[in-house]
Write a structure and sequence with these properties.
Length: 331
């Protein structure tokens, strides 16, 4: 299923708050949450400062998270997992991963707190279930979804399970409330750490065994989970579909372009590597581009899991002579 048609209409309905009966059946009414999963409220946990919360999700407040009694801790905040979730996420331990910025000729190590990430990319069946379209969907990845649509999908999934939505919107800008409990896109560091699963080479196994690529002669993505998983138990992190991440690609050259990772079913081997970075405008979509959900809340409002608002600002600046062949999108 591609974003558009019934799926896009369904997400727009949730965003505008039109499907009140559906939200009520999910335990949300007039912006308040009720739950049969045994969650208790936690008061006084800051989830970041924002100017407004989209009306389609109601007023979730900045000091209310819902966690299970005795639930696990992730970073410096707490998060919860509903046993009735339609999404299968795998908890990953704290660790580290090395990232590379080719333009700035820079390598650095990111220390990661524990977080959760999807075992497989989001499927069309899960999207159909989320919006209540009545159709069965399929176990192939949800594709043709833009970065902004992926952000909206994360929030809609959070609302459907009584979680605090992770993203808010301020005059067109998307704000990550790092302390929120809901679903979100992984950071680039989280994605690469999850993909590598402790390995250091370009692939975590023989590529023909772990991923769908141009070598398979496919015209569309394959069903998820058919190839060998990595040592974290994650499928399809390489090949089949690219996956959106939270991070900016290169703000000095590409402005608001966002990163996607992993390679797709139409890509040659050299593109389907754990370290390969691609990106696109936040409103673009493509038939081999989808998303994988993550969760995990953190105490710092302006930095988490390898992402930093301050670093993004610095990356957006250009000094000295420009590299040959390109002009910055913004000064």
């Amino acid at each position: 299923m591609r974003i558009g048609g019934p799926l896009d209409s369904g997400l727009r309905g949730i965003r505008r708050g039109e499907d009140v009966s559906r939200l009520a059946s999910l335990g949300l009414r007039d912006g308040k949450t009720t739950s049969s999963c045994g969650w208790r409220p936690v008061i006084g946990l800051s989830v970041g400062t924002v100017k407004r919360v989209p009306s389609q999700f109601g007023s979730v407040g900045s000091a209310s998270l819902r966690v299970p009694t005795g639930g696990p801790a992730c970073g410096t905040a707490t998060w919860e997992h509903c046993e009735m979730s339609m999404f299968d996420l795998r908890p990953l331990p704290a660790g580290q991963v090395q990232l590379h910025d080719a333009r700035r000729h820079r390598r650095w190590v990111v220390q990661l707190d524990p977080f959760e990430i999807g075992v497989v990319p989001v499927t069309t069946a899960q999207a159909a279930q989320l919006i209540g379209s009545g159709g069965p969907g399929a176990q192939s990845p949800l594709v043709d979804i833009s970065w902004r649509d992926a952000i909206e999908f994360c929030n809609a999934a959070s609302v459907s399970e009584g979680l605090t939505p992770t993203y808010t919107f301020d005059e067109g800008a998307v704000i990550w409330r790092t302390g929120a409990s809901g679903y979100r896109l992984p950071t680039e560091a989280e994605w690469e750490y999850a993909c590598r699963a402790g390995t250091v080479g370009p692939h975590y196994g023989p590529l023909n065994v772990i991923g769908w690529t141009a070598n398979d002669g496919l015209e569309n993505p394959k069903e998820v989970g058919l190839k060998q998983a990595n040592d974290f138990g994650l499928h399809d992190t390489l090949g089949n579909v690219w996956e959106w991440c939270w991070d900016l690609l290169d703000p000095a050259r590409y402005g608001d372009y966002r990163v996607f990772r992993g390679g797709g079913f139409a890509d040659k081997d050299w593109s389907v590597r754990a370290s390969t970075r691609r990106g696109g405008a936040p409103d673009m979509s493509h038939p081999d581009l989808g998303l994988r959900l993550a969760r995990g809340a953190f105490g710092d409002q302006l930095a988490a899991q390898g992402w930093s608002a301050e670093v993004d600002s610095e990356r957006g600046k250009t000094t000295g002579m420009l590299p040959p062949g390109w002009t910055p999108r913004r000064q």
